[in-house]
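Cont'd.
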Amino acid sequence: MPFDFAKIASQIDELTREVPRGGPDEFAPLRDAYAEIDAGDLVARITDGKNRHSWMPAIPRAGFNGAYPAPPPPTDFSVLATDGSFILPDRHSPARFYLINVSRVHFHYGTRPDAELSSQAELRYREHELQVDGRIPVNAAILGMRRAADELAALAALAGAVARPAVALQDGTLILWALSSQETTVQDWVLEDFLAALDDLRERGTPVASYISYPGGKDVTDALRLAVCDYPPRGLPINCDRCRAERAVPACQVIPPVPDRHLFAHIANLRPGERSEVYYSASKILQRYREHRIAFFYLQTGVEIARVEIPAWVAESPAQLDLVHGVVYDQCQRGRGYPSVLQEAHEQAVINAGERRAIETMVEEALARLGIVMLRSAKDTSKRSRFV
Amino acid sequence: MNDRIGEIIETSTVDFWAESAVLHDLPPLGALVAVQLPDELTLYGAVAFGQTGGIDPGRKAVRRGNDDVYDAAIYAEHPELNRILRTTFRVAIIGYTEPGGTPRHHLPPCPPPLHYSVLHCDAGVVRAFTETPRYLPILAASDGEVAPEQLLAAHIRAVWRGRGHDDAWLAAAGRQVARLFKRDYDRLVTVLEAIDPGDWSLPPTDNRLNGHGGKPIGTAPL
């Protein structure tokens, strides 16, 4: 049956009507709230244990609505990045394994420019690699977080061999929020290596940051919602449930449902190179990050608003914060809007369709040599040889 | 034999592709190169085409320069370019020498193995292998990106230079070309004009962009 495009065409029209347009009136309250915010009062509202709300507000490190131009990068410096890809355990195959491929990229700029690119694949098939704590099978979600830990470990190892100043970059987020819903044993299985890598990077004095292009986060607009809540002026603790029960339109409804990138592009109007203030994330999983609580700032790259996440020790060191800010912006200039080091780390990490098939064949051949004929599940065989 | 200028990455009976050891550094069009085969044969060919592009064919090169950063400075600003770009060249096979050193001006029994080294030929080697220019028809029949008359002319110029401006050899090569194009006056004139030493007798000066620029390094034993 061919896909019915006619049916979704009208739904696409409806969908586009839901996208906020950003007319001047629609965003005026957001503009006012951002301009007039009292950072001290906001922090008090966030930290007051009596307040009950469902937002995950950005916690300002100091100010809330400042903008800072990018400092120039040092004359001689390095940028490092790692990225990863994996082949998931195949439920339809008798061979139980998964594969993680981690790339390592080091660019050096300055008097002796150079670049090193490599990747290393690892097949994992031992019981403790396939099951966490001998009972929880490693699925796609857990493997995604395991890979994040492996990437960061590779990044820390790379940083150990590179002269400073250097910035270690990752693509995506440093906040493993999906871990919150996992059992403690899974959290430990991932976080032990993840935090050890952060320990190493801090000890080495190499700031680490992760880069999110077109970020969907709304921590800062959520903070604005808390800031405009009219309960505290009435002498009441913030209580969203009570508010919703007592009126149809809560005071915080004046803040439109836009992501932070919209706020910084069109309300804060960050200019190319400028970053926002630094905020701490309120994500629950960060309670397990020890001294590596994650902070972030938004950066106008000249092409878009990106989100840059950093651990607390980078956020609290003006020199390291400046280095990250300057180098990430510089990378975006070299990479036409996206850090070139991340682009190459991605290219190195990718396992393409042909390579995936080759790995599959190698495993099948190895099994065949042992006299094990690979019998695929009937469902998988049916998908592979489609017939009419 | 230690003057490796490239590594074979695609091979066949009539020609092979090699990747340069250094980006943008490839032997000039028409230059004689050699491959030392495992069975003690040495294979010879002429550089028939060269190009530089992304290692990943899916990634096209984009403009990187601006008013302040251009040409070589682009490579300093983007050091990864030296790792994600590559220079490749195609070599048309024209013959081989047997263990005793006898030149054979016909195609070798087997293609050269993949990943074997492509070697530069010094003046002595060029002299020995090209002594009789009767192998030129093989080159003229080579089917590739460059028109046969252009390839022939480039090869004859390179060999004449490699043989120390050997005019007697050039005359013999000219006669061979005349025989080849006896029914095609226009193409004959194209080659003859292009090999006339009157206007191209100066050696190339830019070593980097012209491979080894005629520098006699490396030897393929004969």
